[in-house]
Design brief:
The chain is mostly helical and 562 residues long. The chain has one domain. It contains 18 helices and four strands. The strands form two sheets. The protein has a two-stranded antiparallel ribbon. A two-stranded antiparallel ribbon has the order 3-4. The protein is globular.
């Protein structure tokens, strides 16, 4: 039955890619859509209020500067709000807020939400007031998600344009991403969640007496306002500490399935948007096909690992696979699907505890993040990662046929190659250096309060991979609320968001300035099965060369020890 669900999920994502991708292309090319009658007056009003000159386009450098400025303002504003939340009115009362909002936790949380990582070293119900979640976190989920989508569209324009000194206007793209994409879809999705039982209230926490005679506190709050946009904007932070495993955040299998679609559909559809805006639709479909192959491979491997009965329970005649750390209402199928989707989609809204997965099972989401968002990925940033990997593949293919590499008619010369290689190397450098630092210092090892050895190594590697991939999920066996981890994971989040974005937009600017070269007999086709195999092989080869030794010390070693 779970395999039917997997196939249906993939079929829906691929089936929606064409209409959603076409819609995104129309929105950001300024073509007419059904929402124009309502939204164009709102857009014009916002342009006047904010002083946006919609006809004034930006160079790649200026676009990056605006993106960085916007993100910095959002980070500082959220940081101030987090430190000032003790004076905010409304619930919950102070006696439930047992985790103090220290300066390092506030910095980490502010950076986390402004980079769409939503890495949470705290429990939401024991740390934040309702207004902090609504005003601070929900707004950043919208704004940071829209900024990422704008960045992806600007990157596409670098390939679509020729001899152009500009790649669009950041503020125009940002407003369009909010009005035409995130707000209407999130509104419909949130209503669907409330229909399924996700609460939206400002009620006080409820203390109830259990059948055993104890007292249980049931947290309340405006949960539905956060839940859908956290997935749609590829953010992932949960209102509660248990995230998608909490019955208020994720009460039914339908809510779980809709949330996973919200994570995957927009990033997958951007490949079709890329093909349409560049005039090479087959190239866009090829990139989507590579993503689906990698997605399906991870799904098969993770299901095999978690669907099998743990050897430790072999003599107890229990069936159903490895259910440790998984919700009974989701079972192995929904848990595995969520683990693979969220680790691919830069959205860490997991519904099971990955710290309870088998070594091979936990290796799948870990590898997905280590590969750098190439499978669907974050909103806008995932497409950039896939194409940057494709450029490396084109470079390798060009060396084999003895010609200057080119992709979609754009030459990949020395400067472009340097940018693509720097992009590919930044992720392993940051993750491995920070992992080594954590394991070599007392402050880093102090976070390993649950596991040591190979499992402990995996937990530290998982944390930095999640931060660098702007994903946010954790194995939950690492105590990350310390000055050391709050600072070092923030460094990884900043590098994963802004370091990679700056390189991608710089490359887009160089391509936009180029002319489009005609296709010749020596051109490597960018829409053939052979090119898809080359891209797929490059992803696996670069990933193996970068991280195979680290994986051998972590999940591989643990699997061999059992």
């Amino acid at each position: 039955m779970r395999w039917l669900e997997y196939l249906v999920f993939i079929a829906i994502v691929v089936g929606l890619a064409e209409p959603v991708g076409s819609y995104l292309a129309r929105v950001f090319d300024g073509q007419r859509t059904l929402l124009d009658f309502t939204l164009l007056p709102v857009e014009s009003l916002l342009h006047r209020w904010l002083g946006v000159r919609n006809r004034h386009e930006m160079s790649a450098r200026r676009y990056t500067q605006c993106f960085l400025l916007f993100s910095a303002v959002g980070t500082v504003g959220l940081f101030i709000l987090l430190l000032a939340q003790r004076w905010l009115p409304g619930g919950p009362t102070d006696r439930y807020l047992t985790t103090p909002m220290t300066w390092d936790l506030a910095i980490n949380t502010a950076i986390s939400f402004s980079t769409t990582t939503t890495w949470q070293a705290y429990g939401g119900e024991t740390t934040l007031r309702y207004l902090t979640q609504l005003v601070g976190l929900v707004s950043q989920n919208f704004l940071a998600g829209a900024a990422g989508l704008a960045l992806g569209i600007a990157f596409i324009r670098g390939f679509a344009r020729e001899r152009s000194p500009t790649i669009g206007n950041f503020w125009v793209d940002l407003i369009r991403a909010l009005l035409w994409v995130l707000l209407p879809v999130a509104l419909l999705g949130s209503v669907a969640l409330m229909w399924q039982g996700v609460p939206l209230n400002l009620a006080p926490y409820t203390d109830v007496h259990t059948l055993e005679g104890g007292v249980q506190t049931i947290a309340q709050g405006p949960v539905a306002a956060l839940e859908f946009i956290k997935n749609l904007g590829t953010n992932g932070g949960g209102f509660f500490n248990a995230n998608g495993a909490h019955p208020y955040e994720n009460p039914t299998p339908l809510v779980n399935f809709l949330g996973l679609l919200a994570i995957a559909v927009l990033p997958a559809s951007l490949t079709i948007t890329f093909g349409k805006m560049t005039g090479r639709p087959r190239a866009g479909w090829l990139l989507l096909a590579v993503m689906v192959v990698l997605f399906a491979g991870g799904l098969v491997l993770c299901d095999w690992a978690e669907g099998a009965m743990p050897p430790e329970l072999a003599g107890l005649h229990i069936t159903g696979g490895n259910m440790e750390g998984k919700e009974v209402r989701f079972g192995v199928g929904d848990s595995v699907l969520a683990a693979v989707v969220t680790s691919n989609g830069a959205t860490g809204s997991y519904n099971s505890m990955h710290g309870s997965y088998r070594p091979v099972g936990v290796m799948v989401p870990l590898v997905n993040m280590l590969l750098g968002e190439v499978i669907f990925g974050g909103l806008g940033t995932g497409l950039a990662s896939m194409i940057m990997t494709a450029l490396v593949a084109v470079f390798l293919g060009g060396l084999m046929i003895g010609r200057t590499p080119e992709y979609l008619g754009k030459k990949i010369a020395a400067a472009e190659t340097r940018l693509a290689v720097l992009y590919a190397l930044l992720t392993p450098k940051v993750i491995l250096l920070l992992t080594g630092l954590a394991l070599a210092t007392n402050a880093g090892r102090a976070g390993l309060v649950t596991n040591t050895g190979a499992r402990g190594f995996t937990e530290v590697l998982f944390a930095y991979a999640s931060s660098m991939a702007n994903n946010g999920q954790t194995m939950a066996g690492l105590n990350a609320n310390s000055v050391f981890y709050n600072v070092t994971t923030a460094i990884a989040m900043l590098a994963g968001r802004f370091g990679l974005a700056a390189l991608a937009i710089a490359l887009a600017g160089r391509f936009a300035n180029q002319r489009r070269w005609p296709t010749t007999v020596g051109t490597l086709p960018s829409d053939s099965v052979m090119f898809g195999i080359l891209v797929l092989g490059t992803i696996l080869l670069v990933g193996a060369l970068s991280f195979l030794p680290a994986l051998a010390l972590g999940p591989v070693a643990e699997a061999l020890q059992r």
